[in-house]
Design a protein that fits this description.
The chain has 24 helices and 22 strands. The chain has about 675 residues and is an alpha+beta fold. The strands form six sheets. It has a five-stranded mixed sheet with strand order 2-13-10-3-9. Helix 1 packs antiparallel against helix 2 and helix 16 packs across helix 17. The radius of gyration is 28 Å and the shape is globular. About 0% of the residues have low confidence. The protein binds zinc ion. The site of zinc ion has 8 residues, from loops.
Length: about 675
């Protein structure tokens, strides 16, 4: 019996260590937070019941370390404890009961309810009103010194003495660094375009950005911070809530929607409200934090090892649905990366019908032990495509067999390869049809050459044998195009004209279009700006490349490899002969008609793409801003702008202009 318990404890520890590693080091997770917490809870209960099996390195003893050896380590003055979790209203009643028993039946106390932002924790130290140090949670005892990076976050004040004078000479304020959902979505679109795998969730993206080695890059990630707890020997009041109000008056961004309540039933009301209302927030929240307000009572309640007794977090369960896995497709991307995608029996989830879900890669599939015919749970997180979080073992049939991952490319039959550092398998055949078609589709795409050609035309040109590389596009003849299904004189003429116009597309977009791995639109822009011509870029060495904004070693190496390849050099030379732009054309700022104006753009537009409009604004001295605030000058409204946006615009009294108005203004 005892040996069985020991075995169980060891099994749970191994599982949790493995999931920790997946989560913190690999930035992927194969189980949901809920399941992780259930495993941790099971282990904690066993350890309490059987203290003889306690171990100092048990996963229950640490809050998960995110220490990066590149940063210096700082010991926290006050340890950064992590909160106990529950998914269960009944356990919140127990929490309340424990506090009442501890403080006595007649104790008078209030709770503060806060939204639990899904970001990464930070502790800020202020001396004489100036930000002195910013440290991550780390292992709770010590964390990474990320002061330089934190300084790039605009909502973290550098100096509060301009706002007020009544703050303590030294204090710490803690909170959460997070990435707005919209910034996260854009980041993932950019990564996908550059042939990289998308980030798993905004939390990983925020913590990754906070730990970039170059703080200029951190700044570009548009992080935000909410601060929610103050510590000092000289706090202004004895109430956590009131202290936060003070912090707010000193210029700190404290969370909106924080509420002080008198009873646990009011806490439940708060939870019920936010369980639905959270969908309208600009940030992801994953639960509610409940704290005892009175600091003296907090101190009396104290902590149990790693968590305080005076606070708890209630986590929302992610919406999930159970359905049947019908089959798995292996998709081949333009870089040759293989992505397994699950075909599901259609099921309703969060208001939409889900038929497909991502399975990421072979490791994830193995960890899930997912098999054809299994009943699987799908969950919708920050991602566009839902993911499978676990299977339902009780519904597995006796005939089910272990899933065999593809060994050969489903499109060309070449044996797949996988390097040690990569999570995905690759098809190494440069002549693999979906890779070629993918490269051409990328090249003609709107953000690259913007050639008037859809997926079907690319396929037809490829199947007919006319276009095998992007350079072949410029050798197309009218006769060839007319031989394709559905093309007539007029449409053939249009296509040829569009190809002709693409020769005026600026260098940075050509550079993006040629599809160097890891070179997305932003990186291409930076490279074009730095090197001016493709020849300079082709001759650059690793050191020169890595000195450019946002270019790390991995991108630099990819650029070098690209130009080392003989076939690529031939393609570039042919494109040069065709007359494409391989040099930056310095354009003076067209005008300063929009000088200093900050403009928010929203919706879809008839005459120009959003990117083109942004370029027009920049060329005329204006500034593109991503969200509406008091200091916004113009709101450039296209079609399909939501009513809530307009409400905000009107609230701030911002002038609304149309696309035509803008074009008139810069004329
Ligand atoms: Zn292939």
């Amino acid at each position: 019996m005892k040996s069985e318990i020991k075995e169980k404890i060891e099994f749970l520890r191994a599982e949790l260590h493995r999931h920790n590693h997946n989560y913190y080091v690999l930035s992927t997770s194969v189980i949901s937070d809920y399941e992780y917490d259930m495993l941790l809870k099971e282990l904690a209960e066993l350890e309490t019941k059987y203290p003889e099996f306690d171990a100092p390195d048990s996963p229950t003893k640490r809050v998960g370390s995110d220490i990066n050896k590149e940063f210096s380590q700082v010991r926290h003055k006050y340890p950064m404890l992590s909160l106990g979790n529950t998914y269960n209203i009944g356990e919140l009643r127990d929490f309340d009961g424990r506090i009442r028993r501890f403080l006595g039946e007649n104790a008078d106390y209030q709770y503060v309810c806060e939204l639990k932002y899904d970001g990464t924790a930070i502790s800020l130290n202020y001396k004489n009103g100036k930000l002195a140090q910013a440290v991550t949670r780390g292992d709770g005892e010590q964390g990474d010194n990320v002061t330089d990076n934190a300084r790039t976050i605009r909502t973290i004040p550098q100096d509060i003495s301009a706002f007020s004078k009544d703050f303590p000479a030294e204090f710490e304020i803690r909170g959460e660094v997070l990435m707005p959902r919209k910034v996260f979505d854009n980041l993932n679109i950019e990564r996908t375009e550059a042939g990289e795998s998308p980030m798993a969730n905004p939390r990983n993206a925020a913590s990754g950005a906070l730990k970039l080695q170059n703080s200029a890059q951190t700044a570009k990630r548009k992080l935000d911070a909410f601060l929610y707890f103050m510590m000092s020997e000289n706090l202004p009041t004895n109430s956590h809530y009131d202290n936060l109000q003070r912090a707010k008056s000193w210029g700190f961004k404290t969370p909106d929607h924080t509420r002080r309540v008198n009873t646990i039933d009011e806490v439940f009301e708060f939870i019920n409200y936010w369980d639905t209302a959270r969908k309208d927030l600009e940030y992801d929240i994953d639960g509610i934090v409940i704290k005892v307000d009175d600091l003296t009572l907090q101190e009396r309640l104290g902590a149990t090892g790693k968590s305080p007794r005076w606070a708890i977090s209630y986590k929302f369960k992610a919406e999930e649905a159970c359905t049947k896995l019908l089959s798995v497709d292996f998709q081949v991307g333009r870089t040759g990366a293989i992505t397994p995608v699950a075909n599901l029996e259609p099921v309703q989830l969060a208001g939409t019908v889900v038929k497909r879900a991502s399975l990421h890669n072979a490791d994830v599939m193995r960890a899930l032990d997912v098999r054809i015919g299994d009943s699987v749970y799908v969950e919708k997180g920050g991602e566009i495509i839902p993911k499978i979080t676990r299977i339902e073992p009780s519904l597995r049939t006796a005939e089910s067999v272990e899933f065999q991952y593809a060994t050969h490319c489903p499109e060309c039959g070449t044996e797949l390869v996988r390097s040690d550092e990569e999570a995905n398998h690759y098809c190494p055949n440069p002549n693999c049809p979906p890779q070629i078609k993918g490269k051409i589709e990328h090249f003609v795409g709107r953000k690259a050459m913007d050639i008037n050609m859809g997926e079907a035309t690319v396929k037809a040109l490829f199947d007919a044998g006319y276009v095998k590389t992007i350079a072949d596009l410029y050798d197309l003849s009218r006769e060839q195009i007319l031989k394709l299904d559905g093309f007539k004189e007029k449409s053939a003429q249009n296509l040829l004209e569009s190809l002709g116009e693409s020769k005026l597309v600026p260098f940075e977009r050509v550079l993006f279009g040629i599809g160097i791995r890891f070179v997305g639109a932003t990186v291409a822009k930076n490279l074009a700006k730095a090197f001016k011509t493709i020849d300079n870029l082709a001759n650059a060495d690793l050191e020169t490349l890595t000195h450019i904004d946002e270019i790390g070693e991995r991108i630099a190496q990819s650029v070098i490899d690209f130009f080392k390849n003989e076939e690529n050099r031939i393609i570039i030379n042919r494109l040069k002969s065709a007359g494409l732009q391989f040099e930056i054309v310095e354009t003076e700022s067209a005008s300063d008609k929009l000088k200093g104006a900050s403009i928010v753009l929203s919706g879809t537009f008839a005459k120009h793409s959003r990117d083109e409009l942004k370029a027009i604004i920049e060329r005329n001295g204006g500034k593109n801003v991503s969200s509406v605030s008091k200091s916004t000058d113009y709101f450039l409204a296209g079609d399909k702008v939501g009513p809530s946006k307009f409400a905000k615009v009107n609230e701030f009294g911002i002038k609304i202009i149309s696309e035509d108005d803008l074009l008139e203004m810069v004329k």
